[in-house]
Amino acid sequence: MAGRRSRLSVALAPPTAVAVAVVLFSALMITMLPPQAHARRNERARGHCNKTVEIYEDVTSPELVRGNRYRPLRCYYRFRVTKPQQKDDWVIVVRFKSFKIGTVINATDCDNGYLKIMDGNAQTEVSNRRTLGMFCGEIEQTRSFISETSFVKIIFDVKNFTEETYFSFDSRVEQQKEVFGRYGPNPVLYPFRRGEIVPGTYCERIFTDCKLQSCFVQSPGYPSVYPRNLHCKYYLNTRLPFIKLYIENEEFNIDGQRCENPMMCPMRPVGSDCPFDFIRIYDGKNEQAPLIGTFCGMGRFPHSIIGSGQDVMVEFISSPAGPFLNTGFHFNVGNWPGHVESAGSRNGTCDWVFSSDTVEQGQESIFLSLAHWYKPGTSCSYLIRGRPGEIVRMYFPSFRVRPIEAPIRPYDGDCGETLIIYDSDRPDDSRIMKMFCDTFSRPLEKHDFISTGSSMFVKFESRTGSYDGSSLYYWAQYDFFNNTHYGRPVEDTVCDELFESYVRPEGRFGSPLNTLIYKTDEDVRCRYSFKAPRYQYRRILVTINATHFKHNEDACLDCLNDNVDKIIVRDPFRNGTDVCICDSWVNSRRLPATVVSNGPSMELSLHVDRRHATQNYFKSNNPIFEGTYKFIHSPICGPTVMAAAAEGSIVYPKYEPYVYGGYGEDVHCMWEVRVRPERDIWISLERMDFSLEDCSLEVLEVEVSGRHVFTVCATAPEEARSLIIKSKELREGSLIVHFKSQAPGHSTFQLTWTELVELPRNSDGSVMTSKLSSPGECQFVCPGQAACIHEDLVCNGIQNCPGSNASTMHDEAPEICYARTSVHLNYVALGLGAAGGAVVAVVVIILVCRNCKKRPDQDNTF
């Protein structure tokens, strides 16, 4: 232009005669040109404006001439695809090599001029003809616009056309599927990769059932400059939660620069401060869903975004006016494999309640950390609640701690995110089991957190929020265990229990219902202690009804000493007679097995070998053993053991029930009567008064070596109320007497017994009397019996010899006792007479001595 002005100044120099002549001649020649020459000149002028542009044709802004200088100028350029039969398969690429038109004012208008690009018309599937925006400003590098349709129209409008307004471009066409940056690889396999257009719109698209690489979400015109005055909506959907926008590290340029000069227009980094162009992402199907974030800027997007469900809506807005610079966005859509259907109820976004009612017995359920976006200040709770008597176990099969990579609100302090486990049903700082923090905690995998009660509370808190899930990634599994006890748990033990008579006199018991105790590297020892106060004379009757011992490497040959699964019953009042039950014992004997203590206490121990404890019994539905217990022999029965003696008796009741509060308790008395070696024993039931006639309700039984030898009910005849038991039957040196009644305190009886010494017989059948020489042991032969008794038992008021026939002589027969009583009386009389005579003699001697002392005194007086 400077050269043009210099030439013009020369032409305007002071005219000379020659110059004037030349000018006049030129004007005359022009007027003499034919009309066809004028038409060709006008056609060349119109070639820069209002034309249909051939593909590959270079186009520049109109030439600046005197006629358009400083004047408004408006031009349009249409692009024509040369293959109309395939025009819908083509896109037009317009490459601007230079561009300087007007100035952007507040992103809403262009001062002095603009350029509009119409993409599509009434015949194309999409078109932006109703919402054309304006490009203005300047570019320093080549920029392109790639159409969405096969029709493009460029409108150039300037209010004051000067040499400071210009542009130039060329164009070409490409098949749509060959625009790799837009359609990606293998576009034929994904015909709806860019979504389905909403009819009547330019850039609203619907994406359904997205998978990775099957859905490309792009700004219009991508990968080129996006148009102005856009309001686009993208409805994204996946089949499963959590929908993920794979935008991390993707090139992102929405309103990143207002001009190309970085000194005048600093680059806007990717962020949420977006006054002009931006995208908004909603966690749902429309604008009423929660807003995840608003983004604009230039650079690589720092993180992906994960929605909480299956749907996300992306809204893209560009201002009515702006520079021809920004290239928009592109990202994939899929779903993040962090979704698991949890067996619980949810309140809000992430407050869960898990109940054992929704978890099958012996099974586990899971919950995961937040794998989707969440706001700053988010607090999530997980209440794991079992039934009464249950405990909760939770562990992390997978746990990762990472820095907070996609915070919504930056935080520089410690513990921007925390996970706290409470041994409670609510947050209680005094019941914290473990706390994890994103800045210093180490992950803890496969460690069991076990509650002491029926509930556990887990709480996650985030000060920062996140676009793509928690920095504390955890996969938590939980289950429930029956922690009810048959007895009272013993403190500081794993599985010991105490059974006391005053708490529950009888009931069931068995191996621990909480099979979690078998998940250990140590041998399991569970002790069941049965105790009653000594003054109550109690016994404990324990019955093992069933056992379920499983595989063990060692055979059970010596039950007490072998390292096998077993049950040991120990009676402290019966030294050296522990009962041991293992699998071989069960195989060789039949259950149930009954053990009765000799005193008011007993201990049963369960031993489980650690080598197979977890494999055999953890989460097993079958208990290792099942049994019952009963505190028998209440105080009404009296002492439990009768020491060996020549005679003895059991008097029932020992006390009246009101003395110890025994009314209402069924009676089961069990006495052990010990017998000296080589002694027979004669038992006899005296003063029997049973209140119930049914033997199933009230009965007295005598047991020898586990065999019932004597049974008496209320209806028993007189002759059935006594029995002689031979010494050879008393191999254990004792007999057991049982009395069972469902009418406590209403029956009475006295059971007596006498030890007998059996006398051998001669060949003629007569009784040998050689044993009668034993001093004090066998002095009296029972009439009609081949047995003798101790001399002291004769005529003691209790019949000690068997037989009750009045015609039979026995130890209490009057004939015998009268003679023995008379002899005893004569000896007494003689003793008393002698003692009386001695006393009289002593008195006489004393009187004589006193008289002798008085006589000398009388002689001296005279």
TrEMBL record:
<keyword id="KW-1133">Transmembrane helix</keyword>
<keyword id="KW-0472">Membrane</keyword>
<feature type="domain" description="CUB">
    <location>
        <begin position="203"/>
        <end position="336"/>
    </location>
</feature>
<dbReference type="GO" id="GO:0005886">
    <property type="term" value="C:plasma membrane"/>
</dbReference>
<feature type="transmembrane region" description="Helical">
    <location>
        <begin position="827"/>
        <end position="849"/>
    </location>
</feature>
<keyword id="KW-1015">Disulfide bond</keyword>
<feature type="domain" description="CUB">
    <location>
        <begin position="350"/>
        <end position="477"/>
    </location>
</feature>
<keyword id="KW-0812">Transmembrane</keyword>
<dbReference type="InterPro" id="IPR053207">
    <property type="entry name" value="Non-NMDA_GluR_Accessory"/>
</dbReference>
<feature type="domain" description="CUB">
    <location>
        <begin position="637"/>
        <end position="756"/>
    </location>
</feature>
<dbReference type="Pfam" id="PF00431">
    <property type="entry name" value="CUB"/>
</dbReference>
<dbReference type="InterPro" id="IPR000859">
    <property type="entry name" value="CUB_dom"/>
</dbReference>
<dbReference type="InterPro" id="IPR035914">
    <property type="entry name" value="Sperma_CUB_dom_sf"/>
</dbReference>
<feature type="domain" description="CUB">
    <location>
        <begin position="49"/>
        <end position="176"/>
    </location>
</feature>
<protein>
    <submittedName>
        <fullName>Cubilin-like isoform X1</fullName>
    </submittedName>
</protein>
